[in-house]
Amino acid sequence: MRVGFIGLGSQGAPMARRIVEGGYETTLWARRPATLEAFADTAAKIAESPAELAAASDLVCLCVVGDADVDEITSGDHGVLAAMKPGGVIAIHSTVHPNTCRDLSKQAAIKGISVIDAPVSGGGPAAAEGRLLVMVGGDAGVVERCRPVFATYADPVVHVGELGSGQTTKLLNNLLFTAHLATAASALSLARSLGVEPDRLTEVVARSSGNSFALNALGGIGGLDRLAGVAGTLLQKDVRLVVDLADGAGAHGGAVLDAADAALGLMGHPR
């Protein structure tokens, strides 16, 4: 399988490198040519446009930031859909609205191209070590065709259901993480008020039943203020997407949404 990869950020770059090192013929494209310099020591080919990349690929992986980026890269005369051959697959590793994947799938199906949504969790270090988590939505046969490529940078690769379900799963995970941030930050603040050093509380709870990824994240970077600068906007986006999905389904977020809203407020990124 020939692979094209677009989105060479802190997470996408190590994913792409793992694909190249896995022996797959790989083509890259980036808006900023400087981004490609890190791959000068690899066998990866460089395309002049998303369309040129798509023409040389059986699988195109997108790891861009948001919905608008997916639309921009796949549409138009120089987009992925303009040149990809029938039988090809587009895998959306970005965290976006499930409807973005479904809408793209409808356009792609006209050309005999499949779309799967495959958001990832774990970050750049996990990608570099081949232990990202990939949650995939889409046709089971298509997912299995792509699984060996995903396995170069991920373990496990979990097929969660139909197209869009990978995004929904990732958004729910991020909603829960955001909610955990609020409870962890509150507990650390309460500890200080009660005369317990937050670092000592983190050390103890990390080995106890109250442990959470969020608590350890806050302990490692020094609080919500610093995290807000790194992830506040992205978490705000993801919570908004979950709320849109819930509203469409007539569902209520309940306590987890209340806690997530509290965290966004504390980070200065209210929903």
Task: Summarize the structure in short.
This is 6-phosphogluconate dehydrogenase. This protein is an alpha/beta fold. It contains 12 helices and 9 strands.
Q: How many individual domains?
A: 2
Q: Helix fraction?
A: 40-55%
Strand order of the largest sheet: 3-2-1-4-5-6
Low-confidence stretches: none
Q: Mean pLDDT across all residues, rounded?
A: 96
The number of helical runs is: 12
Order of helices and strands: EHEEHEHHEHEEHEHEHHHHH
Ends distance: 41 Å
CATH architecture of the largest domain: 3-Layer(aba) Sandwich
**CATH-level-4 superfamily name of the largest domain:** NAD(P)-binding Rossmann-like Domain
Q: Give me the CATH fold name of the largest domain.
A: Rossmann fold
Query: What general form does the structure show?
Result: globular
Q: Determine and state the CATH class of the largest domain.
A: Alpha Beta
Verbal overview:
With 271 residues, the chain is of the alpha/beta class. Helices cover 52% and strands 14% of the residues. It contains twelve helices and nine strands. The chain has helices at 12-21, 50-55, 67-74, 80-83, 98-109, 123-128, 140-150, 165-193, 198-205, 213-221, 224-249, 254-266; strands at 3-6, 26-29, 45-46, 59-62, 89-92, 114-117, 120-121, 132-137, 154-161. The model has no long low-confidence stretch (mean pLDDT 96). Residues 2-161 form the 6-phosphogluconate dehydrogenase NADP-binding domain. It holds the Pfam family NAD_binding_11. Belongs to the HIBADH-related family. Keywords: NAD, Oxidoreductase.
